[in-house]
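> @MW can you paste both from yesterday?
MW: sure, first one:
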Amino acid sequence: MKAPFLSFSAVLSALVWICLLSGPIPLKAAAGDKPNVIYIMADDLGYGDLGCYGQKIMKTPRIDEMAAEGMKFTQHYAGSALCAPTRSCLMTGTHTGHTRVRNNGGADGDLHPEDFTVGELLKQVGYATGAIGKWGVGEAGTTGIPTRQGFDFFFGYLNQSNAHHYYPPFLWRNEEKELYPDNPEKRTHYSHDLMTDEALGFIREHKDGPFFLYVPYTIPHVSLDVPEDSMAPYVGTIEETEPYGTPGGQHYRYEEKPHAAFAGMVSRLDRDVGRILDLVEELGIAENTLVIFTSDNGPTSAGGADPKFFDGNGPLRGIKFEFYEGGIREPMIAWWPGTVAPGTESDHVSAHWDLMPTLAELTGQPVPESTDGISFLPTLLGNSAEQKQHAFLYWEWPGGGGVQAVRQGDWKGIRHKLQKDADAPIELYNLANDLGEETDVAAQHPDVVAEIHRIMTEERIAPDPDPLFTPAKPKKAKKKKSAE
């Protein structure tokens, strides 16, 4: 009777050694319960705006610490180079050739009932779901609002233009306005602080899990506006520029010290990311909570912001609204003590639309057929050998005269002004040796250009009418108001 027992023991021992030698323990065996997920997304934070990505002027110690304790991605991409389409890609797991919202505003600015979101994905397996911040893909009264797109709770801005102002007269709590009378004048309720308090409250309320908390913060998007305690460390210590605008004279608020204000906004963002991480550890749920931090697109030069001074796009060409790397390559940091190895860095090419399949795999669900994404969970778990790769990444934008971009391997193709010329030439860059996209090598590689053109032609579902190639109607001149 002993021989079979010994044989079984030998087999069991061998299996254990095979598992140990093959890499990290599979997620289900290591984590047990479904992990909580906190996804924090800054607004208009550039690739070079964080210390751990090379920033020299602004201080981001908590996010830098997050990177030191987790994994830093160096080739992660936004859904688009502007706010609304990025959010649509993130929520639906589709790129801008397939996602519903492809521009800011307009008739197709709201998600529809048939659009399947990450909130709905996690809600169907028992997650409490919350969204706190700037939504941007569903106006009040439409089917696109968070509470009709898989989220149990929402607090923040629905409208993107309203989100330009940090002392608003109201914010939305689920489907009702929460009023702040005289706030624009008295400046008593700073929206970012309100959102952070709500995020911390949501985590406390759902600490027994599982929960999914989406925090699309508004800072450091202009207007330049931050409480004095965050701005003060930079006043007089960094080079300043001329005041922005005139008091009450433009959409974005007047700011006397634009550089100090922007730096203060980034520092306040950093502080509050740290507060979220601290609470997760305080509640004893850190080892069962994945926290991801990223940004929605590249830095802006609007409203007094100055990405040139801060080197906000780092070594990359382009800023917000541009589909060169500086407009779409974003920081991304993943923090999960005990699961994501500390101090690691990944050059895996990923994009916002990968969140959907990643969360599906994380929670043991089939990957939705509609997604364009690929799960990056193997990378998070250190199983690089099992990590699938994208055949290409695709972007389009009907603004700016019509733009398309493709990344395939190290090749990057981009073409502009499609509304003037449907056959506009493709610029081609080799990111392996030209990260700054300085040298167009299209003439030397016609075969690569042809392949990228094929992707640009085929990898999209055109809405009706198709604004990517349709010239915009000229705007009617506004009539001047009479002196009366």
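MW: second:
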Amino acid sequence: MNELHITLYQQDIIWGDPEANRRRVEENLTSLHSPAIPGTPLVTDIFVVPETFTTGFGDHMAALAEEQNGPTLQWARRMVAQYDILFIGTWIVREGDKCYNRLHWVFPDGSFGYYDKAHTFRPSGEYNIICRGTRREVFEYKGWRIKPAVCYDLRFPRWLRNDNMEYDLLLVCANWPGSRHEAWTTLLKARAIENLCYVLGCNRSGVDGVGGKYTGNSALIDYKGLPLTEAEAGADQTVSFTLDKGKLDTFRNNWPLYLDFD
């Protein structure tokens, strides 16, 4: 049995203040330590934060973009080394005159990979200031194949299609407004059902700098579309769950629906 203990942080992002947001995430990481046994490892394998967790999502993002090897990556490397975890989250990265909404996965040894958000959100104007990524990505950790996606990507099933069962966990970091929370929760379940995989949706909570409200509705969904754990709507909160790959493999063997994908 291959288990994966995963924690998501439904963060109330502080608008436009990367240092304060990194500090808030670090406080939550510290709280996962066993206070009774100093020096013990975290009780999680993966820690996930929302889309643009350092700045919030808005027109100000490009002005706060960092170089790839900037302060947030250096901070993330310190966190993973200290807590022996895989850290996942997005922040805005500048390359020359272009900016990308870049989801990073930072391994405990400090190495990292990234996925650039492919579907930048046209209605908000993100499309005009953030360059679209063009590559699908899947990475491996502790025997699990993980597919990263960012917010608006969730609406595009062809982009996320799990042909040949290439991944076991779809992981979505988001800033998805509360006014459209039913679409968010429905699409998380739909992507899990159609791709025969676990889905994690980590969304922000709170109110942003221009009055937008976020209820979070972060959740882990199983391959049948059933919630395994859900964050409290509107709360700044961490939630954890242990995923079981054996159960996923058994379901896929008994229900090989992928063999009939068109």
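> thanks! Residues 181-195 form the longest helix (15 residues).
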